[in-house]
Amino acid sequence: RQTRDALGNDALLIALDEFEELEEKISRNMLPPDLLKVLRGYVQMDPRIAFVFAGLHTLEEMSADYFQPFFASVIPVKVSFLSREATFQVLANPPDPDFPLDYAPEALERIWELTGGQPYLAQWIGHCLVSRFNDLTFERGRPQESVFQEADVEAVIRAGDFFTGAQYYFSGVWGQAARGAPGQHTVLKVLASHPGGLSVEELRKMGNLSAPALQKALEELERHDVLCRNGEVWRFTVELMRRWVAKYIPD
Question: Tell me: domain 169-248, CATH 1.10.10.10, correct?
Answer without folding.
Answer: yes
